[in-house]
Amino acid sequence: MRSDLEKRCLLCDEVISAETDSREHLIPNSIGGRKKVSGFLCVGCNSKSGDNWDSVLARQMNPLSLFFRINRERGDAPSQKFQTTSEDEWVLNVDGSLDLPKPIFKEQKNEKGVEINISARNMDEAKRMLKGVARKYPQLDADELLKKAQAKSSYSQDPIKFNLSFGGLDAGRSFVKTALALISTTGVSVRECEHAIQFLKEKESEPCFGYYYEKDLVLKRPDGVPIHIVHVNGDPESNLIRGYVEYFGVMRVVMCLSSSYAGNAFSATYSIDPTKGKELDLDVDLGLTSADIRKAYDYEKWDGNAVEKAMGAVIGPALKAQHKEERERVLEEAVRYAFANCGAKEGEVITEEQHNRLVGLLWEKLEPWVLNQLIGRHRHD
Ligand SMILES: [Zn+2]
């Protein structure tokens, strides 16, 4: 118990008491982390580092958190605005649905007259907007227009533009803190990691991390899973404590946490499938020399093609699964809608008239989706 009593906060060096101990997420909760460590940061430093470092990382990773529909322990990933390839703006929610952030009203005058294009978030809004149009252009029959309007389900006609950027020192400090949190679970003192501590505590110090894509360091990488994985190892022969953090199978970082380590050899790995919140059993082959890691600091191990390949390996399968899910969702919704509105009562035999109405209602709901599948991709060719 003595060593427990002497636990000090990594960042402020205050002795951690039962009252000031925090349960720090090893990988930030915001990107789907689950495992927590205690006796690592005091409550104050936990919250400060969350605000300053983890939240920067969370913002950078949010497009991926949304895209992969991560399963968070607390709260949902915040919805985010995206632009489609035709410049429409949509809001992507964590359940994969898309909202228009605001109704769109486009009015274009040409030699034939005025072309009006309305995108509303729901039929009521569409009605209100159409009534406004009818006031402005009395020759239009708003009711007739409304009949032709159809409720479009919430998906975009165009592929969503995906702008992803990551980097910077705040996000870097979040990676390094995560590696140290893993070390704190091994029994090795995080105080051994002089480079890491200096980088976390001193503003002007040299960053001890860099992006690494020269080769895949994860052993037996599972196909199509956007894994989070953290690995650390200490090696008295090279005097190195190395760290590796990878998020969503895409963002890959190596670090040199210490280059004066003389203790026992150790190694630890923690990995998770953030889409399910499930721990995985994976390992990392991180035997890089300090010269190699240093090259990563200088972006010499960055490789655009490898990044693209890593993205494709996880985004492709997810798109396929989401497409299937969307199809099932649309079908289910259409069936529910059609039954609810065809006039049939539960438990009764359906009349021919109700049956015909049912088919009509089904098609009404399915048509936009089917059209979207058929022509969506070619609309702007
Ligand atoms: Zn502290």
Structural write-up:
This protein is an alpha+beta fold and 381 residues long. It has 3 domains: 2-67 and 166-302, no CATH class; 93-148, no CATH class; 316-378, no CATH class. The chain is built from 9 helices and 15 strands. The protein has helices at 2-5, 43-67, 123-136, 142-148, 169-183, 194-201, 290-297, 304-341, 352-375; strands spanning 24-25, 36-37, 80-83, 89-92, 98-99, 104-110, 113-119, 209-211, 218-219, 228-235, 240-247, 251-258, 266-273, 278-280, 283-284. The strands form 5 sheets. It has a 6-stranded antiparallel β-sheet, sandwiched between helices. Helix 2 packs across helix 5 and helix 8 runs antiparallel to helix 9 (352-375). The longest helix has 38 residues, at 304-341. The radius of gyration is 27 Å and the shape is elongated. The N and C termini lie far apart (70 Å). Mean pLDDT is 82; it is low at 1-5, 151-160 and 375-381. Bound molecules: zinc ion. Residues 9, 11-12, 14, 41-42, 44-45 line the site of zinc ion.
Give me the secondary-structure topology.
Blueprint: H1 2-5, E1 24-25, E2 36-37, H2 43-67, E3 80-83, E4 89-92, E5 98-99, E6 104-110, E7 113-119, H3 123-136, H4 142-148, H5 169-183, H6 194-201, E8 209-211, E9 218-219, E10 228-235, E11 240-247, E12 251-258, E13 266-273, E14 278-280, E15 283-284, H7 290-297, H8 304-341, H9 352-375
Antiparallel strand pairs: 1-2, 3-4, 4-5, 6-7, 8-12, 9-15, 10-11, 10-13, 11-12, 13-14
Helix pairs in contact: 2-5, 8-9
The protein binds zinc ion.
Zinc ion (ZN) binds near residues 9, 11, 42 and 44.
